[in-house]
Structures are given as structure tokens and as C-alpha cells.
Specification:
12 helices, Jelly Rolls, 7-stranded antiparallel beta sheet, 4-stranded antiparallel beta sheet, alpha+beta, globular
């Protein structure tokens, strides 16, 4: 049986939270009415009022590279994902061959991914949907090659994460960086505009209905960034074009929900130091957490042993 050293985990997390708290002291995140006013100002600053309206009415929006702030960044993000994909020499399984390879937990693997995560326009839309303390739930690349021809079923991201009926406010949202041109032939994302207002899962008869007249294929040039509400019905159409389709997917959850990947466990003090306090929120270091038999003292107090331990671990 694998034994987990819960005390070591608590110590690690306590130190990271201390560093995150110090960052927040220098760079406070807005709350209450100040947060509402800041969201409005952020949308105005980045010219995103129309994109916020799209999220309300259609459930998704597409930012051009110039609007998204990705114009000079996306080729480097694409190249980093492809390099990691090509270094992984393991033969893909049947699902990867037919639907593309998922590269999980990319954030700590290259600093370029931190820059992609912290792009201000997308953070403004995330705050609009879920507040300034939204957390990163996944950070993965998807590479589809010539064998990745199957469609992705129509689904909603709230499914199996939020009990139905779903609230109208997004509990989960997804940010997708389009790193190769999106069109029908490349197997682009397809959506049912306005379906986020239904607050329900996709009915079984609609799951593979990729030719349904209500379905809209999202076509966008490389470098675009798509943001959608967690209740939006979406999937991907079959891919028929040659070459590779590359995307970076960054799902987010509200502050009170558990993320799907444990980003605090791969966050370093250096990552916290070189980013704003919003980064500490995104990787889940501003909330409470469970504790082991020692109780909350390890988490909330600074025991005498911690200074010596810090010198060894974080020197």
C-alpha cells in the first residue's frame, strides 16, 4: 500500500500559501463592489464589451489574435506543445489515434505557458464569468494528426462536475487557444449557440448529431482564443484535412469547486514570484484545504520547525 507523507504535503502547501499570501499583500485582488467595477473597467480597457455580450447570449466568444493579446505569443506556444508531443515517443493508444493526443499538466513545463495563462484579455473574460478568484482546472495541449479523424461527442463541461439543474452563472468555463487554423476540415469545435441557458446536459439523441442544423462550426484563424460558458453544448466535427491540428485548452472553475489537476503541487516559489497575485489564485493557493491528523495548525500557524525546513527545501 502506498503511504503518503501527509505532514510533508501540509508543509509544502503551507509554505506555498505563505508565499501566495505575501504576493496578495503586494497586489490585492478586488472583492465586492470593487470587483464588479474592475470587471467593467477591464472589459472597457481591452475592448471586450461585445465579447461579454456574446458570452451572455451565445455562450461563447472568439477573440482575434490582436484582441486576445496572443499575436506574438501563439507560435511559440504551438512550438512548445509540438516539441513536448514529439519528445513523447510512446505509441498512442486507440483513443489518441482516433481523437488526438492529450498532453496533460503543461503549465510547469515551459515558462511560455505561464505567459499564455496570464494573457490579460482572457483573464478579464474569466473574471466576468467567474470572478477574480477563479481557479485553473486543467492545462493541456491537444495534437490531432492524420489519424485523428473521429468527432468529439456533443457535451457540456458542467456535466459530471456540477449537479443538475445547473445555475445560470458559469461554474466552469473553457479557454481554448487555436494554434492552427480552425475550420470544418480541420475538425474545429462546434457549438449550439445559446444552449448554456438550458441548464441541462445534452440529451442522448443529440450526443453524436454533428449534422444537426442548430450546430455551428467555429471557424477561426490560428492565434484566436475561444472562451465558452461551462453549460454550452459543444463538441468537434470529424477531421478530414492532412497535417496536425494543435490547441491549448485551459478550463477554469469557480473558487469553491475542486480543480481537475493539482496545480499547487507543481507550482514553485519562482513561479509565484514572477507572476501577479492572480496567478496564485489560478493555481489554487488562496483557498483553504484539508489537513491530516495534525489538524489545521500546520496550515495556519508557523511552527518552529518550519524555518529550518524552509532553508533546506526552498533555498
Amino acid at each position: 500500500m502506498l503511504a503518503i507523507d501527509h505532514l510533508a504535503v501540509s508543509r509544502d502547501l503551507a509554505e506555498l500559501r505563505r508565499l501566495a499570501a505575501a504576493k496578495v499583500e503586494q497586489d490585492r485582488l478586488p472583492t465586492g463592489m470593487a470587483a464588479a467595477l474592475q470587471v467593467r473597467e477591464d472589459l472597457r480597457q481591452y475592448g471586450l464589451e461585445g465579447h461579454a455580450a456574446d458570452l451572455e447570449t451565445r455562450g461563447y466568444t472568439v477573440m482575434s489574435p490582436d484582441v486576445a493579446g496572443s499575436a506574438g505569443l501563439w507560435p511559440r506556444v504551438r512550438d512548445a506543445i509540438l516539441a513536448i508531443n514529439d519528445e513523447n515517443n510512446q505509441a498512442p493508444d486507440g483513443m489518441e489515434r482516433s481523437r488526438g493526443r492529450n498532453l496533460w499538466h503543461l503549465l510547469p513545463q515551459d515558462r511560455i505557458f505561464e505567459q499564455a495563462l496570464m494573457a490579460p484579455p482572457q483573464l478579464a473574460l474569466i473574471a466576468y464569468l467567474m470572478g477574480y478568484r477563479a481557479k485553473l482546472s486543467q492545462f493541456r495541449g491537444i495534437v490531432k494528426d492524420n489519424s485523428s479523424v473521429e468527432p468529439m461527442e456533443i457535451h457540456a463541461d458542467h456535466s459530471r462536475k456540477v449537479p443538475a439543474p445547473w445555475p445560470s452563472d458559469a461554474q466552469y468555463c473553457t479557454v481554448t487557444w487555436v494554434l492552427s487554423d480552425y475550420n470544418r476540415e480541420n475538425g474545429a469545435v462546434c457549438v449550439v449557440p445559446g444552449s448554456h441557458k438550458l441548464g441541462m446536459d445534452v440529451p442522448p439523441e443529440f450526443v453524436m448529431a454533428h449534422d444537426h442544423p442548430d450546430l455551428e462550426v467555429v471557424e477561426a484563424p490560428a492565434g484566436s482564443v475561444i472562451v465558452w460558458h461551462g453549460g454550452l453544448w459543444h463538441g468537434a466535427v470529424p477531421r478530414t484535412a492532412p497535417g496536425r491540428r494543435v490547441t491549448l485548452v485551459m478550463p477554469m472553475v469557480r473558487f469553491h469547486l475542486l480543480p481537475q489537476e493539482l496545480f499547487w503541487a507543481s507550482t514553485t516559489p519562482e513561479m509565484l514570484e514572477r507572476n501577479s497575485s492572480r496567478f496564485a489564485a489560478l493555481v489554487g493557493l488562496l483557498g483553504s484545504w484539508p489537513w491530516g491528523p495534525e489538524g489545521p495548525d500546520t496550515a495556519y500557524k508557523r511552527p518552529s520547525w518550519l524555518s529550518t525546513w524552509q532553508e533546506n527545501r526552498f533555498a
